[in-house]
């Protein structure tokens, strides 16, 4: 299997997201559901428990850790990420969602530097989009991340 993520440049500057990823020879794909940092006692059907208690940075760390574990459980890995979609809760001062304290590129870069440096924003990250939202499933959830990854020829 081969994954080639093409870098995105604007006016000669490297953007912190990829232009697109071309996948060839994959045996399939993993489409993860939206990942939040909900507490272990969260029971949406029984309307018990609640969202993750903590600031945006703590929620980002928990979500990225969940995504890593989910991908590995399903036979993929961070190495095979194709696309990320970030839903970030507002309000958004001044410069919009990218300037929001809930959007944590620093935490993502720290996480990827430890687990798969190629995906750091200053290197060659997968394509992504950032969508600002007024609310998520629970009032204290600040971010939700959807991931898509390839399944390699041989399980990781």
Automatic annotation (TrEMBL):
This is Enamine deaminase RidA (YjgF/YER057c/UK114 family). SUPFAM superfamilies: YjgF-like. It comes from the Bacteria. Gene3D superfamilies: RutC-like. It comes from Rhizobium sullae (Rhizobium hedysari). It holds the Pfam family Ribonuc_L-PSP. InterPro entries: RutC-like_sf, YjgF/YER057c/UK114.
């Amino acid at each position: 299997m081969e994954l080639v993520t093409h870098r995105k440049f604007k006016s000669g500057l490297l953007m912190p997201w990829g232009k697109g990823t071309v996948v060839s020879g994959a045996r399939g794909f993993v489409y993860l559901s939206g990942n939040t940092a909900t507490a272990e006692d969260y029971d949406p059907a029984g309307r018990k428990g609640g969202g993750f208690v903590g600031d945006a940075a703590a929620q980002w760390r928990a979500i990225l850790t969940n995504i890593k574990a989910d991908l590995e459980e399903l036979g993929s890995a961070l190495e095979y990420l194709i696309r990320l979609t970030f839903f970030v809760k507002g309000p958004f001062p001044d410069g919009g969602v990218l300037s929001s304290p809930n959007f944590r590129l620093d935490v993502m870069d720290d996480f990827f530097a430890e687990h798969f440096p190629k995906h750091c924003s200053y290197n060659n990250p997968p394509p992504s989009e950032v969508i600002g939202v007024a609310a998520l499933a629970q009032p204290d959830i600040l971010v939700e991340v959807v991931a898509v990854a390839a399944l390699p020829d041989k399980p990781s």
